[in-house]
Specification:
286 residues; alpha/beta; D-Maltodextrin-Binding Protein, domain 2; 3 domains
Length: 286
């Protein structure tokens, strides 16, 4: 009799343990599923950028690309976008297959992108232009004009493309053929002009308007040529095997366009009239 009672108690104890264990597995989230924080880990998307204000500059506290990516990060959890700065001349390899980055924004097909590489080009973003600038008082006195014939010192940016130079980027050739001296950014080129180290400087109209919007007094000392050197339309460009498809990225961008966020960002940097996003969808004529 005592043996049967002990055996029954043992069976009840084992059954109780099994019930307790099963309840832990199916009720306690620690055992029943992968941790929520692991499930929600976003895919990191690396966006290449080089000195091209107001779109991107490491020398200012705010730039359009940074605020745009911050906005995308705040509105969804699938992807996390971060910037990696590259030199202008290195941007082509940055988003080749096996390169360091997945995307670039505000880039033009006219800027010597290799045609043999299978880059993925996306929607248009903005239209823009660049032109020659000189000191106003030197133009008024007839000391300089806007002719680039090698007789005047010209300030530009290393890795930028200028139509008057046939979009050549070789620093040695530009100096020899066009008397053009390369700086590492547009602000330095502007300073070279203000200090009369060069006679002319090539600046983008977007950069100049941004300085005017920020009420930078030095920009009032220069005047631009009536005709621009060249105009361009910037687009999104992606790596063929990037961590995000162009379709998915354009979907995220389109949501910012539809709720007015994109227009507001462009307005903050003085390029609202240059906005071109949406033309592939019929909003603008391309």
């Amino acid at each position: 009799m005592m043996q049967r009672t002990a055996s029954k108690l043992w069976r009840l104890t084992v059954a109780g343990l099994l019930v307790a264990l099963l309840s832990l597995i199916f009720i306690n989230p620690v055992y029943s599923q992968v941790d929520d924080s692991e499930q929600a880990m976003p895919t990191t998307i690396v966006v290449a950028a080089y000195e091209f204000p107001p779109f991107y500059s490491s020398r200012v506290p705010q730039h359009l690309l940074g605020l745009l990516l911050d906005t995308l990060n705040s509105k969804q959890v699938e992807y996390h976008f971060k910037i990696r700065e590259v030199r202008p001349q290195d941007r082509y390899s940055a988003i080749m297959s096996g390169g360091c980055c997945d995307l670039m924004l505000f880039e033009s097909m006219d800027w010597n992108w290799p045609t043999e590489v299978d880059y993925v080009w996306g929607d248009y973003l903005t239209s823009g232009s660049e032109r020659l600038f000189a000191l106003s008082h030197r133009i008024e006195r007839g000391e300089v004009d806007f002719v680039v014939d090698g007789s005047r010192r010209v300030g530009g940016v290393i890795g930028y493309h200028y139509q008057f130079a046939g979009f050549e980027t070789s620093a040695a050739l530009l100096e020899q053929e066009y008397n053009l001296y390369g700086a590492d950014n547009q602000r330095t080129a502007l300073n070279m002009l203000l200090n009369e180290r060069v006679d002319l400087a090539v600046l983008t109209d977007e950069y100049v308007r941004w300085l005017q919007l920020r009420k930078q007094p030095m920009i009032e000392l220069v005047v631009g040529a009536d005709a621009y050197d060249h105009s361009y339309r910037t687009r999104i460009i992606g790596k063929p095997d990037g961590s995000i498809t162009m379709t998915d990225f354009e979907r995220l961008m389109w949501s910012l366009y539809e709720d007015g966020t994109l227009a507001s960002l462009f307005d903050d940097f003085g390029i609202q009239h240059d906005a071109f996003f949406g033309c592939k969808r019929g909003t603008f004529s391309c």
